[in-house]
Amino acid sequence: MANNNARQGGGGGGGNNQMNEHVEFTVKAEEDLYLTGSENTIRRVTAETNYSCLMLKTQRFSSLFRHYAKYHGLRKDDLEYYFVNPLENEDTPESVQLQRGDTIMVRKRRKPEPPEAAADDDEFFKDMRDLLEDEEHMDAVFMVPVPESAVDVDDSDKEGDSSSSSNNNYIEIRAHKCILTARTDYFKALFRKIAAASDGMTSRKAFKEAEEARIQVDPTFTEEHIRYMLEFIYTNRIQKIRNISTDDLLCILHLSDKWLLRDLKRLVEHELIRHHMNVNTVARMYGATEDFNAQRLSRACIEFIMSNLRQVTGNTSFEEEMKNYPHLCIPVLKAAADLIPEGPVHKKQRTDHSMSHGTPGSSAAALGSSPVPDSDP
Within a domain: residue 141? Predict the structure, then answer.
């Protein structure tokens, strides 16, 4: 009866009662919650600790977040809350269907997951490597001289490689002009020169030379060196670089300097420094830095020589190699000179004043000590 009278008498205030309706719930710590600083870390809340709350159903959770952090001595931005889903500042108990006796969990805020890569790099490198083996649209040819000792070798070993062919004097390795020109200005200028030379020539041979650019390779370099270079140009890496010998790496360094492949030069220098530099090879590498303008490798060689001076100077191969580059001894001597003090070290003479027995105050002054002020009132 009382309920009926209340409903009849309060019909006009039903909306206000609904607006003022509260919900009682619990906030539970999922884990230990800490206040962390640069000098110390303090545990503020132990895992599984419950905290009872009473909120209006239409009240935003931002007020709960602020209150909970302040009450427990934590930073609001260090915490995150979830019910059945993560709770946001604009959510309310009513909007997330929170009921009496329900539990909201609180924990340290997780770092957002990094976004997934837009594309698979491994798949890209595989495609580029496959492109290197596909001769259908290749329009550039590297003419690699065949060593005299190998001229009479049977060409059947090359049948499985679609991007190369050979005749008696040259091995032809094919590539794409567009990729070569995109990777280095050397080939861009070279192909422009070839195209200009063919302007005004109407012969069939001239047309073919312009369409299929031929790059004459110095006899210093082998088929293997060109293939390593092309692998890097196409994929920006050399997959089996650890299997390449020191001599071959120095040839690739020479090639990268000749054809202005700066990134390849950097890669080869790094590989030589990290995995090939030792007492027996450092002189050969140091000499190559002069020929191929490899400044990073030069600095590393000097540092290695200075760190292993006794072993290096007693090594026969080092002595023989350096005979070809006597002027390179100057940077080493300069580095050694930097380690020697500029002048003789003079001992400070003791004066009569420093040896005299004076007052405690004068003794402290002589030693350079500062008096500690008394902070007591």
Answer: yes
H or E segment and range at residue 107: strand 103-108
CA distance 13 to 36: 49
Q: Which residues contact 221 (CB under 8 A, 6 or more apart)?
A: 144, 251, 254, 255
Tokens found for residue 60: 């935003």
pLDDT digits 0-9 by tens, 318-334: 888 888 888 888 888 88
Q: Which residue has the higher pLDDT, 354 or 66?
A: 66
Number of domains in the chain: 2
pLDDT of residue 166: 57
- Tokens found for residue 302: 């000097």
Burial of residue 18 (CB within 10 Å: 0-12, 13-18, 19+) is: exposed
Whether 130 and 226 map to the same domain: the answer is yes
Q: Are 82 and 102 part of one and the same domain?
A: yes
DSSP designation for 94: T
Give the pLDDT mean for 61-90: 95
Q: Is the model's pLDDT at 90 over the cut of 50?
A: yes
Q: 354-371 pLDDT, tens per residue? A: 445 544 544 444 444 434
Tokens linked to 11: 């019909």
Query: What is the structure's pLDDT at 159?
Result: 47
pLDDT value at 312 more than 80 = yes
Q: Are residues 142 and 104 in the same domain?
A: no
Q: What is the Cα–Cα distance from 163 to 133, expressed in whole angstroms?
A: 5
Residues 173 and 235 in one domain: yes
Q: Is the dihedral of CA 206, 208, 212, 214 positive or negative?
A: negative
Q: What CATH number corresponds to the domain at position 129?
A: 3.30.710
Range of the domain at 181: 120-239
| 275: pLDDT strictly greater than 90 | yes
In a domain, 330, yes or no: no
CATH number for the domain harbouring residue 81: 3.10.20.90
Would you give the end-to-end CA distance of the chain in angstroms?
Answer: 76
